[in-house]
Amino acid sequence: MTRPIIVFDLDGTLIDTAPDLLDSLNHVITAEGLDPVSTADLRSHVGHGARAMLRRAYTAQERALPDARLEHLVAVFIEHYTANMPGRSRPFDGAVACMDRFEAAGFVLAVCTNKFEAMSRQLLEALGIGERFAAVCGANTFPVRKPEPGHLTGTIDRAGGDRDRAVMIGDSDTDINTAKAAGIPVVAVDFGYSPQPVDTFAPDRIISHFDALTPLMANELIGARTRP
Is 171 a catalytic residue? Predict the structure, then answer.
């Protein structure tokens, strides 16, 4: 029998990975002769992946970055990031207690992320929380990825969750648009990596701390759910 399910995005939602992503970025670009970038410069862009971060760093320093070189630097970035995982990455404040609440209430937990699946699993296991998730589905798990709704619905199915009793938790327009396309209610966190305020994207709810995310809220959203 399927169970109600909470599906978390990873970077910027469940885990604060910005310090390590920025460390890996600086490892790459300083070797290329660029100046290191600060957390304030790129924190709002780390959720868009290594390619976007590298392009932005090169553009900010008025340096050309040919596509062939970009692909090489992405590989170096991933190698450095993976080798140093989990580094300084940690669950956001209140996230573990939030998961405890939902598990106690009978919800399945899952992760739906545009990070690669193996990398996501490695991070969660290194943080000691990998076994809590019935499914961890990344950018390469299915033929589609967010914002395609099939990434989210596929994650729910793989976790043994009920699509009609599901809630997505994310920090970006990608997460919000994915959930809306799937007809699944979405709660946005406002402490993540979105370069724009998350209320711009009209999620069903916004929270500023995981203490505010409760089974009662999830059940209210599920009860108000409208099918696409």
Answer: no
C-alpha torsion sign, points 143, 175, 170, 17 = positive
Regions of the chain with pLDDT less than 50: 227-228
> Largest Cα–Cα distance of the chain, in whole Å?
56
- Of 9, 16, 175, 204, the active-site residue reads 9
Measured between alpha carbons, how far is 4 from 225 in angstroms, rounded to an integer?
Answer: 13
- Could you report the per-residue pLDDT of 131-140, keeping only the tens digit for each? 999 999 999 9
Looking at residue 102, its pLDDT comes to: 98
DSSP 46: G
Beta bridge partners of 129: none
Residue 47: per-residue pLDDT: 66
Interatomic CA distance for residues 112 and 131, integer angstroms:
15
Q: Which residue has the tokens 């043994």?
A: 160
Q: What's the confidence (pLDDT) of residue 228?
A: 47
CA angle 129/151/155 to nearest 5° reads 40
How many whole angstroms separate alpha carbon 215 and alpha carbon 95?
Answer: 14
Please give the Cα distance from 104 to 123 (Å, whole number): 24
